[in-house]
What we know:
By secondary structure, the chain is of the alpha/beta class. It has helices spanning about 10-15, 20-30, 45-60, 75-85, 110-115, 130-140, 180-195, 200, 215-220, 230-245, 250-255, 265-285, 285-295, 300-335, 355-365, 390-395, 425-440, 460-465; strands at about 60-65, 90-95, 120-125, 145-150, 160-165, 340-345, 365-375, 380-385, 405, 410-415, 450-455, 480-495, 500-505, 515-520, 535-545, 550-560.
Amino acid sequence: MSNETIPELVRALLSRRGIEDEHDIATFLKPDYDLHTHDPFLFRDMQVALDRLFHALGSNERIAIYADFDCDGIPGAAILADFFSKIGYTNIETYLPHRDREGYGFHFDAIDALASRGVKLIITVDVGTTAIDAVAHAKEKGIDVIVTDHHEIPGALPDAVAVLNPKLEPYPFKGLCGAGVAFKLVQAALREGKKRKMASFADIPDGWEKWLLDLVAIATVADMVPLVGENRTLVFWGLQVLRKSQRAGITALCMKARLRKEQLTEDDIGFTIAPRINAASRMDDPDLAFRLLTTRDPQEAELLAALLESLNTKRKGAAGAIVREAKRRVRDRFRDDEKVVVLGNPEWKPALLGLAANSVVEERGGVVCLWGRDVNGRLKGSCRSDGTFSVVELFTTAKDSFEEFGGHERSGGFSVSHERVHDLQESLANAAVGLAASAPASFTQEVPQYDHRVTLAEVSRVLFNTISALAPFGIENPKPVLLVEGAIVKTIKKFGKENNHIEVTLDGACYAPVRAFDFFRQEDQFSFVPQQGTRANVLATLERDTFRGGLALRLVDILNV
Length: 561
């Protein structure tokens, strides 16, 4: 799409995002991989990390990849595993901590186990920035650590050989996910190997690392980091690679989930692929997902894809029960204007609480923290934010209430003592008051209600294709919200096993009805309660209808005319 042929609607939508310069428009609509990704050597510790890595390669030291158990750490571990496989290095293993038995973090017992197997170098993925004691313990065991991570830096760094984190200067883009940082290490290592004229790198074609962008795209979308800047470039091209992916596991997963691999979008990652990868650690063992992403055996891939499908079904049932209880308790105990919600139940499985908290946030906004009890009797929880407050800033302000905590602006995890858990609501609410008082004026500005005004007749494939020029959508690049004016509500019905989703058929009298829907919504949760035969204005995004085919509107709100 040349600048001369860019539709006016696309220009208008970009203008609403502050993109009006012709060069910026061209960059946004089709980012250039080589021009719009940053040099990996801009990471502060990249050269020292490479020196230690290549020393290990030259000495045939045992290397361990230590990655988080979610759909950022697991793809990141697969990126590094693919790299070592490509250069033919076999003295390596991967360690993914068990979500329930070990929890998030860089653990002493795991380090001891790796030391007993002769590991001399650990490369972390999506973990390690705050692991001061664990890195020191590894050093005592004779193990060097290279940290690749993207989490916030609340204080001093660990005494690792190198800490690769985009939030450290001078790296120019702060928003990479954990797998994105691991990718940058591979990108730099491939250049370094050729520079050193190492035989194992000689036959690797320039640009081979682009075949790893499918994993980067999965992790970037799944971890909900901003889809702007370098991330937009990585996901834009990562989706191209994903649609052509030769990974047996991706092919098997798409077949099992009834996805067309050649048409995969960021929505398919967010709503189908990522939940199945995450289901491995939430309901069983994260290694199942790692094997799915790295296996070259189609038969093994089919078995693993079927297992993850089954685990995801179980996960949905278990998470749904928590969501229903949490929403009921929120409605009973909290006012609508309370910005921070803390709820817990010793029977809740901590691995499912991030999903549940996110569902509550979608309904009421603000910050929602849920806690449960793990298999070892520890109280652990997850927190989600709609962006009103930074989760990490909240945690840091109320740090005395926690045993451990970590995360990002919109999500985080924590552990809390049995004594302090009862004070957590008050502590975080007070922290929010302090943060709100110190927030800049722009922090509280309302976002526009909609991006573009249309009639039902204009809801078409042409409009969808035009809007899709701005994809991939995500954090800081949301789907445009349409105001559909004067539609007649033809039918209203519930769907889903528990009838907890809503479907509204909109009629424009002279043209075909359009399906509009939303998950976990009831009629009385819209600004205007729809009734059959009434006329309404509808706020919605336009999406592919994966349920019935064609297009559908995803409801944001229903308004009175």
